[in-house]
Amino acid sequence: MTALRTIRRRTFLQSASAFGACLALPALAQGPAFPRGPIRFVLPVAAGGAADASTRPLTLELERSLKQPVIVENKPGGLFTIGLQTVLQAPADGHTLIYLYNSVASVQAVHRRFDINRQLIPVTQTSSIPMVLLVPGNSRFKTLGELVAYARANPRKLNYSSLGPGSTEHLKAVQIERSAGFQAQNVPYKSGPEMVKGLIGGEVDFTLTAATFAHTFAPKGQVRVLAVLDRLRMREMPDVPTLSEAGVNVPPLTFWGGYAVHADTPAPIVQRLYEELTAAATKPSVRELLAPMGILTVTSKSPQDFRKLIADDVAWMAETAKDLDIALEK
């Protein structure tokens, strides 16, 4: 009898344990509650540029779907490290995201201040903006061929704006210089809007920047678009040739933008954010707002796909910068 009673007790306990585990499964599958409060988007750049333009329409859609306030905070400075530290010091619960784009990758490649794919989890790309080569509206150069011919005949006489040594604009200009056989001077600015302001004011001879600025200032005659660095011509400016069509053969480049969270963020929250961001970015209302500014909505197939895009950019940027004398900023 004692043995039989022991067997029955063991069977009961095993069944109760299994039943309890089954009850717990849905709770585990759901993961941490999200969202529990406001969502913060940290933009590590000054207000007024492409980051703001592409982020703010998303926040309206996310407020509707997440039923929480979505706040945008501009945290420029320190080669993006001020914005990055804001995210790294916040709880790793998915409520604080950081905007990433090509120049953040270039700072990693050149200055090695941080490691995006180690310190953060890239969630998804949400936007793509063609890069264009602009000259002032009153420039002597009507085509890229004219600019290249002058630059070859007058070494280092032309200058161009960038976001500083090792920035995306600087590294791409270096590729163009090497391919076309000329040298020009790099003039650093603090932001994209300031770069274009300097161009319009005649402080520099050309710049590589987002097509957003071309859409704003070319119709007013303040800038002239000589080339687009994408694989295809822009639908909105069909007469502007691609860089390769203009005779300069370098790999095409677009400005990508997307979002990441703290590296310790739980996987279910990362997946939820991926689904929410990709859904918001592909809403017709968002596309209609962004298209007139030359901003395309492009989303990653997965967070891993966005991680690879960043790693690929870091690789070519590091290779381009390898032979440059770029002083690492303190």
List descriptors.
330 residues, alpha/beta, D-Maltodextrin-Binding Protein, domain 2, 2 domains, ten-stranded mixed sheet, 10 strands
Please describe what this structure looks like.
It is a single chain. This protein is α/β, with parallel strands linked by helices. The chain folds into two domains: 39-128 and 255-321, D-Maltodextrin-Binding Protein, domain 2 (3-Layer(aba) Sandwich), CATH 3.40.190; 130-228, 3-Layer(aba) Sandwich (D-Maltodextrin-Binding Protein, domain 2), CATH 3.40.190.10. 45% of the residues lie in helices and 19% in strands. The protein is built from twelve helices and ten strands. It has helices spanning 2-30, 50-66, 81-88, 102-111, 116-119, 144-153, 168-180, 192-200, 211-217, 267-281, 284-290, 303-321, and strands at residues 39-43, 70-74, 96-101, 120-136, 159-162, 185-188, 206-210, 223-228, 254-262, 296-297. Strands 1, 2, 3, 4, 5, 6, 7, 8, 9 and 10 form a ten-stranded mixed β-sheet that branches. Strand 5 (159-162), helix 7 and strand 6 (185-188) form a beta-alpha-beta unit. The radius of gyration is 25 Å and the shape is globular.
